[in-house]
Each structure stands twice: as structure tokens, then as C-alpha cells.
Amino acid sequence: MLSYSKAQKEVTKIRLASSLAADVLEMVTSYIKPSITTGELDAFCFMYITTIQKAIPASLGYYGFPKSICVSINEVVCHGIPKYNHIIKEGDIANIDVAVLKEGYYGDSSKMFYVGEAIYIYKELCIVTQECLYLAIRSIKPGIRLRTIGKTIQSYVEHKGYSVVKDFCGHGIGRKLHEDPHIPHYNTPDNGLILKEGMVFTIEPMVNAGERYVLVEEDGWSVKTKDHSLSAQYEHTILVTKDGCEIMSLRTEEPLSIYIHSI
């Protein structure tokens, strides 16, 4: 059975790319204000990645995706295409998803932003989504079944009265943006796959305030909730270590240590 573990030199480069993705999310925070367009946010990120980080925005041109980041507002679950005529408004929630290619390796991360004053029910959804990601991260260590990640997420989310999107999942990452194994965010058969030291993958639960069902818009990319309910997502790139895991895309504002010791 494949272990999917990376060599140390690969881990070093994925760590660099992941830290750059986190850096972009920190940089763009000050621009998230009412009346800015999603197209402007994309332009800021493109310039930062290419001129400051000397890296490549991995989303740009990926299977034809036309922009450098994904910006998903309110009922948009993922893959929202930034546009200069799309103005974000007071009270919106926005997910920004950033993938960076540096020295031949990828890093991937996303987070939710409140636009102006957060509406309580919007904020609660985001908090639950971030916490289910953190719970999954805390469960990671060598020797556990892959399905433990999804089981942990689904149990917490449904206990809180929300639903987990099942159409998309986390993924291995390295020389390619999306590699095996798939990382489901719900309890499902995993063919007996056991986590091993050196595995690198993303966990990126998408949580809906309503039902889990989604649909793809006419642009071929933007995914929305079928019932028009709100959706939220957080994502980190994770390395399985000898006694837990490393959050390779950790941001400075987060209340976690970069190293999680679970054994």
C-alpha cells in the first residue's frame, strides 16, 4: 500500500510554499473592506505573489481558471471567480483561497473574512467551520485511519446543526497542486489507509448553514449552495510528523502552535 510520504527536501519546499500562501492571506486582510471589488483583491494578491514573493499564483490558468485567487462570498461555497464588477458589502463573509507555486512545489490555504461588522449568524458559521478544522488537525498522528479526519469534522459540524459539503475534499500536495490521497471531510470508507510520517495534504472543510447540496454556476467554476444558504471554508496544508502534525500554512493570528503533539 502506498504511504504517500514525502522526502525531507520536498517537505522543506512545500513548507516554504505553504508559508507564502499564509503570508498572502495576512497581507490581503487590510484590504477586506466594504466597497472593494473581488477583482481588486485578486490584483493585489497577484502583484504580491509575483513581485514580493517572487512566486507563481498557482490558481491562474489552472485547468483554465482565469484569476490568481478564489474569492467566494456568502452562498458561494468555493471557486468564486474575482471580478471588477463584484463589490463586497458590509456584513458579507468572504473566503479567500490562495495557492502558491515556489521552486517547483505548491502550498495551499484559505480563510474566512468578515466584511465590516459581522452578523452573528454569519460569524457563528465561520467559527464552527474553523473549529472543525482545528479539531481534525488535533486528531492527526501516525497510525490513525484516514477516515478519522472526516469523521471528526462531520460529527462536530452536524452536532452544531450545520452540514458538510461532500462534493469536494482535501488532497495531497507537493509537485502537483492536487495529488493523492483524497481527504474527505465526512465519515466514508478509506480503503484502510493509515496516516504515516511524512504525508502532506490539505484539510479544507466546506460547511453550509443549510443542506449540503451544491451546484456549479454557468461560469463553470463558482460553486453555490443549492438552497442559497451561507457557506464557509477554512484550509490548511498539513504535514504528518512522528508524534502529531505540523500546520505548514499557519498564520500568525491563529491560536494554535505550528506543531501539534498528539502522541
Automatic annotation (TrEMBL):
It catalyses: Release of N-terminal amino acids, preferentially methionine, from peptides and arylamides. One of its GO terms (cellular component) is cytosol. Its cofactor is Co(2+); Zn(2+); Mn(2+); Fe(2+). The keyword Metal-binding applies. It comes from the Bacteria. Coiled coil: none annotated. Residues 13-242 form the Peptidase M24 domain. Substrate binds at H79, H178. Transmembrane segments: none annotated. GO terms for molecular function: initiator methionyl aminopeptidase activity; metal ion binding; metalloaminopeptidase activity. Binds 2 divalent metal cations per subunit. Has a high-affinity and a low affinity metal-binding site. The true nature of the physiological cofactor is under debate. The enzyme is active with cobalt, zinc, manganese or divalent iron ions. Most likely, methionine aminopeptidases function as mononuclear Fe(2+)-metalloproteases under physiological conditions, and the catalytically relevant metal-binding site has been assigned to the histidine-containing high-affinity site. A divalent metal cation 2 binds at D108, H171, E204, E235. GO terms for biological process: proteolysis. Monomer. Removes the N-terminal methionine from nascent proteins. The N-terminal methionine is often cleaved when the second residue in the primary sequence is small and uncharged (Met-Ala-, Cys, Gly, Pro, Ser, Thr, or Val). Requires deformylation of the N(alpha)-formylated initiator methionine before it can be hydrolyzed. HAMAP family: MetAP_1. This is Methionine aminopeptidase.
